[in-house]
Amino acid sequence: MFSIDVFKVILSSYILLLIDINAQSEQPKLSVEILYESLCPDSIRFIKEQLYPVWKELSPYINIKFVPFGKSASYENGAKFICQHGPKECLGNRIQSCVLNALQDQNVQVEYVSCFMDVYKKHQRNEQEFGQSCAAKVGINWDYVIQCHDSQLGTDLQLQAEATTAQFSPKFVPTILYNGKFNQQAQDESLNNFRG
């Protein structure tokens, strides 16, 4: 039978263990922002080959934000956008902005962006492919996407993406920011070993 002193030691140890577990679970997450473009081959490669394969493992430690704009530019307060890879890229960036705006869960956002970056590239060969299947896969109604795309909200979301991107004036797309800062070494390593 345990004495009261032994019981107190065991209970104290258990409480300290619980406090330690809670302290570990409250560690701040790493903030990762990805400045990218919907038709950029390097953006597609990074999302499909670096981010997506390790996402489930890393997701408990990361707050992710996707910024689909890249080396695009707006004119006349968003009346027109010019994109590095042409008008279809502008369309893809805007569609992604609309869907990402509607999705709160970052795991679902990663699923959507990965799907879109795979499927939308095929739009160049299939004029009817705008990522509808990816929106459906994550439970977003395509009518909402079209309505957002055609509205001031779609313009505002792209202007916000432009403002975020302009803070860093990326020389390369995708640009990966850690805790709101750009670091060239982290950028270079992320493109080949995001998990690392």
Automatic annotation (TrEMBL):
| Annotated protein name in UniProt | Gamma-interferon-inducible lysosomal thiol reductase
Q: Name the protein family.
A: Belongs to the GILT family.
Signal peptide positions on this chain: 1-25
Write the record's keywords in alphabetical order, separated by commas. Answer: Glycoprotein, Signal
Family annotation (Pfam families)? GILT
**Which organism was this protein described from?**
Ignelater luminosus (Cucubano)
InterPro entries found in the cross-reference section: Interferon-induced_GILT, Thioredoxin-like_sf
Q: List GO molecular-function terms, semicolon-separated.
A: oxidoreductase activity, acting on a sulfur group of donors, disulfide as acceptor
